[in-house]
Design brief:
Blueprint lengths: L29 H11 L3 E5 L2 E4 H17 L7 E5 L6 H10 L3 E4 L6 H11 L1 E7 L3 H8 L6 E5 L1 H5 L12 E2 H5 L18 E6 L9 E5 H16 L1 E5 L5 E5 L14 E4 L6 H14 L2 E4 L5 H10 L4 E4 L1 H8 L14 E4 L6 H10 L4 E6 L9 E2 L15 E2 L4 E5 L13 E6 L6 E2 L3 H7 L6 E9 L5 E6 L4 E3 L2 E3 L1 H9 L4 E11 L3 E10 L3 H5 L2 H9 L10 E4 L13 H11 L3
Parallel strand pairs: 1-13, 3-4, 3-5, 5-6, 6-7, 12-13, 14-15, 15-16, 27-28
Antiparallel strand pairs: 1-2, 8-9, 9-21, 10-11, 16-17, 17-18, 19-20, 20-22, 22-23, 24-25, 26-27
Helix pairs in contact: 1-2, 1-9, 2-3, 4-5, 8-9
Length: 578
């Protein structure tokens, strides 16, 4: 922490018994899997369509994939693009790439063809793992890319790794990779952990063009440990074979969920930073049993949460909004749920209060991070006696510093003033692939990453994210932050979802406009544009007032749960002919 700006974090914010700095072992990402296989053995690591994948089998299948890749010329420095949804075969594919010493480049399976082709070309991908249902669409995107080999999987492999898919000549069935020799050939032994890329991850593109984020093995292992130790009260430890695992040092009174006992349902896409680091590597390291849901069905989610007796619930804010509307959700006994973790977008305070009422024993915590810092930079305390400040994303995790700088650049601002969030720590990316100018713009000479997010640090070192600089509106020269208006909107009876964007205006610059989703109740039915504007505008200074309300069936979100404001902003530009 930077004492000059945010002051020391208090005891109420720091995991008990844990140091401010961790020792990060010099191991490749594959080490996480090796240790987990030894430690957790025949415990189910993942369950998909009620079919389990134990830690032991995951290890065998991952080594088989690694061996196949090596035998087909894929290894150190080669990029493998993975273009599939979350499924039981995803972890063996991911760890197979890591164990082969190759680079994992996740892609959203819903990317339009032109965007997919651009990403594969930018990444220099030699091999693509794709989904059988999108294969015809994918073929048209591959002609101009460097991809040489296409490996195909599909829903059939969820149920049976040996299932054969009807493929054309030249395509490879994932079953061939999964059925190979499961011997660990230690193909990742010679990697340069500070230089060889584990992940080439692309930014979400919610506000602009996606950029490739270079994350060496050291970054990935470091951030998995930062997040896993933070949430479980643990320290990094090497097992008898020298592979990395966790030693839980904090007691049950503070962390009632012990390593190797957690059960969760995961919706967070593994092609997203929070998915790959927190909900794949973090779960494997901690011995968690993860039930995979490929797509979000709120009713099915609640059914499985009851059936598998989950100990934690995680996701992005739209997930929690939807769960609270499932009939019967609020009536179930959720006393076994000890944690709720939210990320990808800010969690409105009113939503936190509603969740706490239904989940009485749960610690509800938000974290904050970006693809450019591997995944996590800050977190609210996960231990029971910790101080969680609603509306904040917590304090910087181990070995991480946060400062707030003026939006136009300059020295750190005093406590309580809003500005750009800047982050320094061992998890900050190496840079943007092929974009030295963009890298230099975002990481300064002192190693500070300039996030583009607007935030405030309080006197205890807790960070609040006010907005994205790219989402900020300019009304007659005044800065208007949509997040402030959205917080108020979420507190209006009958509002299920909301997002605020700017409508271009010749005189004012941009007019704040709210897109609102009604709840399916009497309050929702009674909402009018006028009533919503009155509810909000009475609480803000004149220049921040909403100028219009547009009712919409659903707020557009990315697969990672982030609101796609560019789509709403585009609607506004169309209205004014821009």
């Amino acid at each position: 922490m930077t004492a000059t700006q945010s002051g020391p974090t208090t005891a109420a914010s720091w995991p008990p018994g844990l140091p401010r700095s961790l020792d990060y072992p010099e191991v490749p990402v594959g080490s996480i899997l090796r240790a987990a296989v030894r430690r957790w053995g025949d415990r189910p690591a993942f369950i998909d369509h009620d079919v389990p994948l134990t830690f032991e089998e995951m290890g065998r299948r991952a080594h088989a994939v690694a061996g196949w890749l090596a035998d087909h010329g894929i290894g150190r420095g080669d990029v493998v693009a993975v273009h599939i949804p979350n499924c039981r075969q995803y972890p063996p594919i991911y760890y197979g790439i890591m164990l082969a010493g190759a680079t994992f480049s996740p892609t959203n399976p819903l990317l339009p063809a032109a965007d997919l082709a651009a990403q594969l070309t930018d990444a220099g991908a030699k091999l693509l793992v794709t989904w059988d249902q999108v294969l015809p669409f994918v073929r048209g995107a591959l002609a101009q890319t460097p991809v040489q080999t296409v490996v195909v999987t599909g829903e059939a492999h969820i149920l049976d790794f040996a299932a054969r898919l009807p493929l054309e000549d030249g395509d490879v069935d994932l079953a061939d990779l999964l059925a190979g020799d499961p011997t660990d050939r230690h193909l990742d032994a010679g990697l340069d952990l500070a230089d060889d890329l584990a992940h080439l991850a692309y930014t979400g593109g919610t506000t602009g063009v996606s950029k490739g984020v270079e994350l060496p093995h050291r970054n990935v292992v470091t951030n998995v440990l930062q997040s896993a130790c933070w949430t479980s009260g643990s320290l990094p430890e090497l097992d008898e074979a020298g592979d990395v695992t966790l030693r839980q040092v904090a007691g049950e009174d503070e962390y009632p969920t012990r390593l190797g006992t957690a059960r969760i349902i995961n919706l967070t896409p593994w092609f997203h930073a929070m998915g790959a680091i927190g909900y794949l590597n973090g779960m494997v390291m901690g011995g968690t049993t993860t039930v995979i849901h490929m797509r979000f069905d709120p009713v099915k989610y609640v059914e499985d949460a009851v059936r598998y007796d989950v100990t934690a619930i995680g996701g992005a804010p739209p997930v929690f909004v939807a769960l609270l509307q499932v009939p019967g959700f609020a009536d179930h006994d959720w006393s076994r749920v000890r944690g709720v973790s939210s990320g990808a977008a800010p969690l409105p305070v009113t939503l936190i209060e509603r969740l706490q009422a239904v989940l009485p024993n749960a610690v509800i915590g938000e974290g904050y991070g970006l693809t450019e810092v591997t995944m996590q930079a800050t977190g609210n305390p996960s231990f029971r006696s910790g101080t969680r400040k609603a509306g904040t994303v917590g304090v910087p995790v181990f070995d991480t510093e946060i400062t707030i700088r003026p939006l136009g650049g300059g020295d750190p601002l005093p406590v309580g003033e809003r500005g750009e969030v800047c982050i320094r720590g061992p998890q900050v990316m190496r840079g943007y692939a092929h974009r030295p100018e963009a890298t230099a713009e975002s990481i300064d000479a002192d190693g500070w990453f300039h996030s583009g997010d607007v935030g405030i640090l309080d006197e205890d070192g807790y960070l609040s994210i006010v907005d994205r600089t790219k989402d900020m509106l300019l009304y007659k020269g005044y800065n208007v932050f949509p997040r402030e208006l959205e917080e108020i909107l979420f507190g209006v009876p009958g509002v299920a979802g909301a997002a605020v964007v700017g409508r271009p205006d010749e005189d004012a610059g941009e007019l704040p406009v709210a897109y609102v989703v009604r709840k399916g109740d009497d309050d929702g039915a009674a909402l009018t544009a006028e009533s919503v504007m009155v509810a909000v505008n009475d609480k803000v200074t004149p220049y921040k007032r909403l100028r219009d309300v547009v009712f919409i069936d659903a707020i557009p979100v990315s697969a990672a749960g982030k609101v796609l404001k560019r789509e709403l902003a585009a609607k506004e530009r169309e209205k004014v002919g821009g």
